[in-house]
Amino acid sequence: MAEPVALLALAMDAAIGWPRWLYRRIGHPVGAFAFIIGFCERRWNDHRLSEAARRTLGVATMIGLTTLAFGIAFVAQEAARHMLDRWAWIAIGILAFPALAQRSLHDHVLAVSRPLEAGRLEEARSAVGMIVGRDTAALDEAGVARAAIESLSESFCDGIVAPAFWLLVLGLPGVWAYKAINTADSMIGHYELRWRAFGWAAARIDDVANLIPARLSALLICIAGRGGWRVMLRDARKHASPNAGWPEAAMAGALGVRLAGPVSYDGALHDKRWIGEGGADVFGGDLRRALGIYRIACLLLWIIAGGVAWAL
């Protein structure tokens, strides 16, 4: 039996997450990635440079960031193995668990679900605004529920399945290299003119890193929701992202609702394609059901992590 590092990391994240008191004191490890990315973006994403130059500097930023994250984590992993021998896996699991977001994602979505079902729409709008980038001030109940379900589905991949996958494949260096890549994508991997060239490498590398995890996430959601396969296979490619559409379509199919559709960002309406089938109305009860599917899907991931450790 191999060391159950991923299982320990998942269990610790579910049990304690990243406590607010700790975040207030020292922030979160991804904050270091954000600092480096922001520094490079301000210094090198100069629009007086050609698009080719900015793209090259964006590639250099990603090479440096990923190498740094991988290298520091590799040194920490090897130091733990050298100093702690057979107990090193416990230290590695502790160092890995902050890269996961089961508890955080659950709590943020629950903060939307409870007031939404209680009829406190303004409170639900405020809570969903903490986890989505779209305009939320004018969202009705269906809009709030839809936004939260979409965020829950996509973040199940980015925040949980993908880090766990790379932890299983490449150990501690893999999970922190992934977090560096995903943080860069969230900050600069956008199609808007400001980031299109400089963030090109971040977006493309993130697409590759999530290729398998996104489909695994969709598989787990369909199993947990006992359905959604047909919608997943039909609608996954309707999303602009080559990966995000998979867990989102799986969740839409499992719930029997429609997600995506027209949304507003910074006052501009974006006519996204609908994913799923049924009426456009989505209710607080649907968000509660989505959280139930999410919990079961996380448990299935635990089983996979334990099974991999047992098989190896």
What pattern of helices and strands is seen along the backbone? HHHHHHHHHHHHEEEEH
Annotation field: number of helices: 13
Low-confidence stretches: none
Structural class by sheet pairing and helices: mainly alpha
Query: In angstroms, what separates the terminal alpha carbons?
Result: 5 Å
Number of strands: 4
Please tell me about this protein's structure.
This protein is mainly alpha-helical and 312 residues long. It is built from 13 helices and four strands. The chain has helices at 5-16, 20-26, 30-44, 51-84, 88-96, 102-117, 121-128, 141-188, 200-209, 211-225, 229-235, 245-255, 284-311; strands at 258-260, 263-265, 268-270, 274-276. Strands 1-4 form a two-stranded antiparallel ribbon. It has a two-stranded antiparallel ribbon with strand order 2-3. The radius of gyration is 20 Å and the shape is globular.
Report a brief summary of the structure:
This protein has 312 residues and is mainly α. It is built from 13 helices and four strands. The strands form two sheets. A two-stranded antiparallel ribbon has the order 1-4. The chain has a two-stranded antiparallel ribbon with strand order 2-3.
Can you tag this structure with a few keywords?
two-stranded antiparallel sheet, 71% helix, 4% strand, 312 residues, mainly alpha
Outline the fold blueprint.
Elements: H1 5-16, H2 20-26, H3 30-44, H4 51-84, H5 88-96, H6 102-117, H7 121-128, H8 141-188, H9 200-209, H10 211-225, H11 229-235, H12 245-255, E1 258-260, E2 263-265, E3 268-270, E4 274-276, H13 284-311
Antiparallel strand pairs: 1-4, 2-3
Helix pairs in contact: 1-5, 1-8, 1-13, 3-4, 3-8, 4-5, 4-8, 5-8, 6-7, 6-8, 6-13, 7-8, 8-9, 8-10, 8-12, 8-13, 10-12, 10-13, 11-12
